[in-house]
Amino acid sequence: VSTQSTWDIRKYKMSDQYNGAALVGMCGKECVALACDTRLGVQLRTIDTNFNKVFKVNDRTMIGLTGLATDIQTVSAKLHKEEKVYRLEEGETLTASMFANFVSHFLYKQRFAPYIVTPIVAGLDYDSITKEWKPVMAGYDLIGCMDQNNTFAVGGTCSELLYGACESFYKEGMGPDEIFEVISQALLTSMDRDILSGWGANVYILTPTQLITKKLLTRVDQQLFQYSNLLSVKKKKKKKKK
Amino acid sequence: MGLLISRGMARRYDAKTTSFSTEGRLMQVEYAIESVNRSTPTLGILTKEGVILAAKKLVLSKLLAQEKMSEKMYLIDDHIICSVCGMSSDALVLVEKGREECQNYFYTFKEPIPVERLVELLSNTIHIPTQYGSSRPFGTSILFAGYDSHSKFQLYCADPSGNYASWKAHVLGINNANGISFLKEEYKDDMSLEEGLKLTLKTMCKTLDATHPKPEDFEIVVVKKDLTGGVQIVPLADKVVQDLIDKSGLVVPEKQQPHTFN
After folding, report:
1. Within the 60-79 window of chain A, which residues sit less than 8 Å (CB to CB) from chain B?
2. By the CB < 8 Å criterion, does A85 face chain B?
3. CA gap B50, A193 in Å, rounded
4. Bridge partners, B80 (sequence order)
5. What residues of A are in contact with residue B233 (Cβ under 8 Å)?
6. Which mean pLDDT values do the consecutive 10-residue runs of chain A (242 residues) have?
7. CA distance B190 to chain A (A)
8. Which has fewest Cβ within 10 Å: A165, B51, B64, B152?
9. Does residue A212 contact residue A205 with C-beta atoms inside 8 Å?
10. Which residues touch B213 (CB under 8 Å, ≥6 apart)?
11. Which chain A residues contact residue B103 at CB under 8 A?
């Protein structure tokens, strides 16, 4: 049986669709949320079902990445390294907006040999004048064009679907509980329609006091026992009738 | 020692760092070590439960704006801290390189750098100007204190010649001979952290000839394990230092001092 698919011919030209990912970020009132799927595939074949794409940078910032999986790993490791060096050198933690600008600069450095990633930086900036935490949300293209806004950012193979879902579900001034519901719905509806992403989802909600992590029940192609760690409901074993 | 002997001969060979003298010594390196020996003292003590680094705070001028960061102690990574003795500008170059190297190691191996490896890397950097032309050697010795899972708690000293050694206790700076001879007698292999801290204060006072030590004069940092088993690098607060000074019996209360009358 041949495992070649028509996608193979274009696999090097469509590197951002080689592994598959889904990522969405939303801003709320004094909170931000990032949600990603957890599938890692090689085109149509699923390799890993627990491949996380959102990383915590420091207490005020997190970054999610989509695109080529090896570049996701490299870019996140390099950004962690830079954040650590900054923290040791300056004695202070990097603020969210500074980190967002840094990511743009970091990607542009590789203008002619780019990292094939679409990052989304989500964080909270403390405004000492109004004494409020302002959400910071920035999406980028692979060479660092920063798109900063106060609403939402999307990335991944199902980004067109996500744009539609977010546009419908998003509203201003959501709290942490509401933002969890909205972002989960937006991600699930889009992800389920896209073959390259899915198979589990992680949602990260950053508030001024904590980082809340949640796993979502999603559609999976086979309910095997080893994927039971994805389910948040305990499996009830049927008792055998004697 | 050694510099007093044949000073006249040595002068002809001390201009360039890359020339040996007739006695087979690199005079520039020795002068760099001499420069360190004239600097504000710093010491380190290794105990089973942790490593202690102490330094005398450098108070150059009342007009200096108070700095957030210390001038003697620098955090290299979450599990390594260093204390510098000598020219602080030279030290900062090394500290920055050290920080970069720690993160490069972590980026490659996803594990914190072993302390000895970092000390070796920096010693190699320090060694370069002693062998290759036209730069002067680094004018600093650095004490490294850290923890890693391979060799547990460690204390190293890197000097301007590019050598480094692992120490149980070491003193750098002015009057370090006093401190070292005191430590040779008082240091015990199985000290607890508390005993180590008291010994640190006593050694510091011996080195500085200080009769009335105050917490503002010192900076003391401890590398130890916290309750969860992770490494913790803790600078001691003034209150804690004052408590130690009281417990270690360094200051004789005024009432007990005998009055002498002519």
Report:
1. 77-78
2. yes
3. 56
4. B77, B146
5. none
6. 47 74 96 96 88 95 96 96 92 92 95 94 94 95 93 94 96 95 95 90 96 90 52 53 55
7. 33
8. B64
9. yes
10. B201, B204, B205, B245, B250, B251
11. 81, 84-85
Determine the Cα–Cα distance for residues A14 and A20; give it in Å rounded to an integer.
Answer: 11
Beta bridge partners of B170: B44
Residues in A closer than 8 angstroms to B76, CB to CB, are 88
Please state, in angstroms and rounded to a whole number, the distance separating the CA atoms of residues B42 and B53.
7
> In a 3-state reduction of DSSP, which class is residue B154?
strand
- Taking the CA of residue A79 and the nearest CA in chain B, the distance in Å comes to 10
pTM: 0.79
Query: Is the CB of B107 less than 8 angstroms away from the CB of A78?
Result: yes
Report d(CA B24, CA B42) in Å as an integer.
30
> Residue A92 CB: number of other CB atoms within 10 A?
9
- Specify whether the CB–CB gap between B28 and B17 falls below 8 A: yes
Q: How far apart are CA B86 and CA B83, in angstroms?
A: 10
CB under 8 Å to B67, separation ≥6 — which residues?
A: none
Measured CA to CA, the distance from residue A45 to residue A5 in angstroms comes to 11
Name the helix (H) or strand (E) containing B104. Answer: helix B88-109
Chain A with chain B: Cβ pairs closer than 8 A? 20
Contact B91, B127 (CB under 8 A): no
Q: Do A91 and B96 touch (CB under 8 A)?
A: no
Name the residue in chain B with its Cα closest to that of A77.
Answer: B107
Chain B residues bordering chain A (beta-carbon distance below 8 Å): 68-69, 75-77, 96, 99-100, 103-104, 106-107
| Secondary structure element (H or E) that encloses residue A52, with its range | none
Instruction: Going residue by residue through chain B, which has 262 residues, state the pLDDT in tens, using 9 for 90 and above.
Output: 444 444 555 566 666 777 888 888 888 899 999 999 999 999 999 999 999 999 998 776 777 776 666 789 999 999 999 999 999 999 999 999 999 999 999 999 999 999 999 999 999 999 999 988 778 899 999 999 999 998 999 999 999 999 999 999 999 999 999 999 999 999 999 999 999 999 999 999 888 888 788 888 889 999 999 888 889 999 998 899 998 888 887 766 555 556 666 5
Residues A203, A234: contact at Cβ < 8 Å? no
Whether residue A47 lies within 8 A of chain B, CB to CB, comes out as no
Q: What is the pLDDT at residue B186?
A: 93
Nearest CB partner across the interface for B68, out of A77, A84, A91? A91
Alpha helix ranges (H) inside B113-175: 115-131
One-letter amino acid at A51 equals: F
3-state SS assignment for residue A92: coil
Are B106 and A81 inside 8 Å of each other by CB? yes
